[in-house]
Amino acid sequence: MSNEPALKPSESLRNVRYEIRGKLARRAQDLVRMGYEIISLNIGNPALFGFRTPETMRLAMIENFPESEGYVNQKGIFPAREAVVMQQQARGVVGVSAEDVFIGNGVSELIDLTLRALLNEGDEVLVPSPDYPLWTAAVNLNRGRAVHYPCRPENGFVPDVEELASLVTARTRAIVVINPNNPTGAVYPREVLEKIAALAERRGLVLLCDEIYDQITYDGAQFVPMATLAQDTICITMSGLSKVYRACGYRVGWAVVSGKMRIAQELLQAMELLASLRLCSNVPGQWAVQTALGGYQSIRELTAPGGRLYESRRVIVESAAANPALVLQAPKGAMYAFMGVDTERVPQFDDQQFALDLLEQKHVLVAPGVSFNVPYRNHFRITNLPDAATLRTVFQRVEELLGEYRDAPQRAPRARVVEAQDRFK
Q1: 346 with 231, same domain?
Q2: Do the Cβ atoms of 340 and 378 come closer than 8 Å?
Q3: Average pLDDT, whole number, for the chain?
Q4: Quick check: is 68 in a domain?
Q5: pTM of the full predicted structure?
Q6: What is the pLDDT confidence band of residue 55, given thresholds at 50, 70 and 90?
Q7: Whole-angstrom Cα distance, residue 191 to residue 149?
Q8: How many distinct structural domains can be found in the chain?
């Protein structure tokens, strides 16, 4: 046996987590290879559940494929950037040109690029809790410090702006706003967004707005673009093709810089430098942007009563209401539900242990709430992408497992989590 020391990874990864694709997901893959059928609700991947990208977008890519063989402008092809500008203008965003738009390999790349351009060692970024964990990870990777502002379940997962303001320090550089929210499905009211914008303007903070679910809302919930409210600071709006247009694999996102543009020039130059270093983003997918934004918006059918996303969400809401052990703030947008468990009815409930047991015993994969940087341990996230029948099966299995928990003698959940996870490291 070799005594050579193990090759250690970078210390910069010490505080970086992305449990949505972590140990539980790897264990699910093992079970699939063993022949089990796993219902995977941990990731919002529309293609996994039979959703297709609109045909017109596929045709736009095919027709322009001969133009996709070389590098393009580091910010992206002009038709794609111009289409994003036109969308922003139609929403009431003023003063934006194609030069203020960056096309990236999904919003994920643009989050990293923007934070790298913005942050110095020890700079703080206010990130919601719960959050989409890439935001916390990207802040840490880019030498910053993620400071989480609570979006509490009892407040419908909407932030208290006074509490948010109390966390601002001399090192704070930016506020992250995820609206419609992943993982909770909250859609922030206009008055809350106005207060966040005013706070950012008053304290000279950059607004980093993750609006990838901008057209996925339910029951009349109104999405308000932050860029329409923030005029006296820099606002960077991020969206893309992945969710609204069911094109995750195309890897096409965009970042739009707006607001107080006279102070934004050095940041724009830094972002362009970083965009240049990766030469350009995926070219074929960019040809679908103009068709997507300018064409028929089929997402409206999916989110209206009778539409698949709407009806799946309805099953989630009704199933949660029918189970006394479950607590749910009905999602108003996005494609997730952040489900709570009443720990008075299910004592010693632990989200990681529950997720592991649900996978091993019931063959359903969910994301435990702790994955989303929350201090409590009684939530889990599921997606409403499966059809209604599949979700009814999921909630039947959840009810069975929670019933087994209630009927079981006292357990030592944390020890079991460690022991079980060690089996599939």
Answers
A1: no
A2: yes
A3: 93
A4: yes
A5: 0.93
A6: very high
A7: 18
A8: 2
